[in-house]
Amino acid sequence: MATIHRVLVANRSEIAIRVFRACTELHKQTVAIYSEEDTLSLHRYKADEAYLVGKGKGPVEAYLDIEGIIEIAKRKDVDAIHPGYGFLAENPEFARRCEEEGIVFIGPTPEHLRLFGDKVASRALAQEAGLPLVPATPHPITTLEEALLFAKQYGYPLIVKAVAGGGGRGMRVVRNRSELESALERARSEAEKAFGNPAVFLERYIEDPKHIEVQILADQYGNMVHLFERDCSVQRRHQKVVEIAPSLALTEEKRQEICEAALRLMRRVNYVNAATVEFLYDSEGNFYF
Q1: Residue 133 above 70 pLDDT?
Q2: Strand ranges inside the chain, DSSP E
Q3: Please, is 284 exposed, middle or buried when counting C-beta atoms within 10 Å of its C-beta (0-12, 13-18, 19+)?
Q4: pLDDT of 28 over the 80 cut
Q5: Is residue 1 pLDDT above 80, yes or no?
Q6: Which of 8, 134, 216, 289 could form a disulfide with 275 if both were Cys (CB 3.0 to 4.6 A apart)?
Q7: Residues with Cβ < 8 Å from 9, sequence gap 6 or more?
Q8: Would residue 161 show up in a list of annotated catalytic residues for this protein?
Q9: Which is the catalytic residue, given 28, 57, 193, 240?
Q10: Can you tell me the distance from the alpha carbon of 43 to that of 10, in angstroms, rounded to the nearest whole number?
Q11: What's the confidence (pLDDT) of residue 266?
């Protein structure tokens, strides 16, 4: 296993600062990147060094500049890159480029990112593993007509979700026909800007569910454990604000069932690294991947 001395964080703001703090506690040198608009951003000053990335690009596009980030990492003798969340965190091409350049990508392998970074593909994996799923389109929606057919079958409310990325980006709740077309357009636009991929799909929207996450840790020797669950139901704009552990909504039997389902899914793909498996838990006691 490679020894890590210098870590570049391919992100900004609060998440970058948290990683810098952890690296400092581990006696690792830190490197920040920043867009032109973030020249005075706090995270730039919390790292040992900071460099401009994506010159001439927008405030989001700069952090999606794979080759620009790799170039800085190589020029500054960086051993590892931490992607944070959002931006390139779930981009398999970024992880692959790190691997090609001999830089440690602090995260899943390119293969696992390819599997789970695509929400449509990950739903198919979950179905193969026998996990319960919320009804959704089996592929990205490309036309309004496809969306209308799904809405006719399952009714409203629906939710539009970006196929790639996370962090609550590219998501829109649709409660009637008049909202559908604009929701698709806005979700696609946001997904394109945030992840460089405009693809979206539709899912039946569950009202006021509990948002349950199970933390998984797996090593390269086949050992895998769960660290139980946390309740992340307090959210703003589909992004969690408060985490509660253990979840007060689950019985011990349901807790065990959900945690075992998370392990079953990750074992199926021989996962290595840390992962969070997310479930929705409804008022009737049903859970869905």
Answers
A1: yes
A2: 6-9, 29-34, 49-52, 80-82, 104-105, 158-162, 172-174, 200-204, 210-218, 224-236, 239-244, 273-281, 287-288
A3: exposed
A4: yes
A5: no
A6: 216
A7: 15, 16, 19, 20, 30, 31, 32, 33, 43, 47, 81, 82, 83, 84
A8: no
A9: 240
A10: 11
A11: 97
Look up residue 122 and give its two tokens. Answer: 């990950």
Spatial CA neighbour of 201 closest among 168, 158, 163: 163
Average pLDDT value for residue range 218-238: 93
Instruction: Say whether 146 sits in a helix, a strand or coil.
Output: helix
- What gap in Å lies between CA 88 and CA 95, rounded to an integer? 9
Are the beta carbons of 198 and 192 closer than 8 angstroms? yes
**Cα→Cα distances 187→8, 47, 194, Å:** 30, 34, 10
**Which stretches within 155-232 are classed as H helix?**
177-195
Work out the mean pLDDT of the chain and round it to a whole number.
95
Residues in the chain, how many?
A: 289
Angle at Cα 97 formed by Cα 95 and Cα 103, nearest 5°?
A: 80
**Both tokens of residue 161?**
């979700």
Residue with tokens 């009737």: 284
184-217 confidence digits (pLDDT tens): 999 999 999 888 889 999 999 999 999 999 999 9
